[in-house]
């Protein structure tokens, strides 16, 4: 499949014309306000003691409608901010959407409390009448019982706008203003953080070292601001937890991801028990690069001279062709995303670093954001985000309340798509050297999920425990970060990245707590699913789609049992799932 003359900028006007000056968007926001007033009235009218099923269904209908429009608004403003971090008007819109979201959450607190007030007999009647969304309603009723009273939870939502969420916005603002100097051929270029990050995987070690040094200088220069931001974010969250009587900082992230602690522990333990081959890989890679040990900025460095670069059109053609080997629906969907300009990939300054996929549920579309510079890693990121978009497209066929899948299963679809592209590239390698380069790219991803993400998890859990006793200094944050990296990487590196806590956006995201372990879960879970796809071929696509449709209406343990017959709380599934990654690293070690 060949795609040519593609534009590498997205189309947002199809949603609201005019960007951050859009009058259409302001009208849309006013419509949300009107719906919120109606929802408030209907939620007020509910009698928790004696439920009226008709009134309850009307309230739920408004709940779903507002939720769809709020998510559409969040996606639009998020895209505006990402494409141009100097767009101050977009920042104003973001504040307005945050305020609307807080108002919505306040009404939901009251709505959930009405559900909690129902006695068990009446509640069984409600679940019978609303059987298609019974899991979600039950979940909301259970969670609200573990929180504070309605007045206190409403106050928390109000204070979060100018407190909790504001600190997250501050981090984005600081990152947007950081400029990284880069010198090449005697000329100095000013890069955004995202552009500079792309250079840290260049073949030339002098470039990697210079860019990393300049990035570290920026983190160090702003360390006090980043430290203050991180401490206040954590402080707000911990204060809320304390008020609710929650002692374990993992309680909320596990609940949000609909998984048990036993599942998380089983997954990490299997990874820890199988880290040695990956530590051996890091040592072998150092030898191949002529180094005694890899430093942090060498981990993603390419090996050999066959580090192929892809034009945007080539990447699009390659990805859609390889998706076709798995199933027609995934491939056709991805082709449409490229042709209809769902993707912002242009390599320019002023963009936010990183990549994401934003869902526009009211329009039934998605938008993908990244900075594309032609590397194999960029191609993987593109396939990864298309996996997210496909998941969102598939789940549009179910009720809005059954679309809110958690981050851990979200990363399943994205990683699954990434693996299809990676395996295909490896099979098509034209030489042993190219095969080795592509195999190493796959192993790098395992290192990222098993070591880098593990370091983030170790750092964040330990930081939160120390934050309970007071503010954690810059020096201590650096120590915690480096200790976590040494442990997670099995001491295999020379120099580490103590300021990683300042550089990683994920630590500052307020919408989802502990933005780390779900990535590793998604990676290993998808490896298990991918193994089955390889056995069953193209016939597996419909089973895969059925699994994706269920990702938002049951726990991950029930999801795995229903579609895979697997018990995630036991080691067996994870032992089986990690085998393909172990085979990759063993093949690399054998080839070298």
UniProtKB/TrEMBL annotation:
Family per UniProt?
Belongs to the peptidase M3 family.
Give the Peptidase M3A/M3B catalytic domain ranges. 199-578
Q: Which GO terms describe its molecular function?
A: metal ion binding; metallocarboxypeptidase activity; metalloendopeptidase activity
What is the protein name for this chain? Oligoendopeptidase
Query: Cofactors per UniProt?
Result: Zn(2+)
Cofactor notes: Binds 1 zinc ion.
Question: What NCBIfam families would the database entry show?
Answer: M3_fam_3 (TIGR02290)
What SUPFAM superfamilies has UniProt attached to this entry?
Metalloproteases ('zincins'), catalytic domain
- TM ranges are none
Q: Name one Pfam family in it.
A: Peptidase_M3_N
Keywords, comma-separated and alphabetical:
Hydrolase, Metal-binding, Metalloprotease, Protease, Zinc
Chain ranges of the Oligopeptidase F N-terminal domain: 115-178
Q: Which GO terms describe its biological process?
A: proteolysis
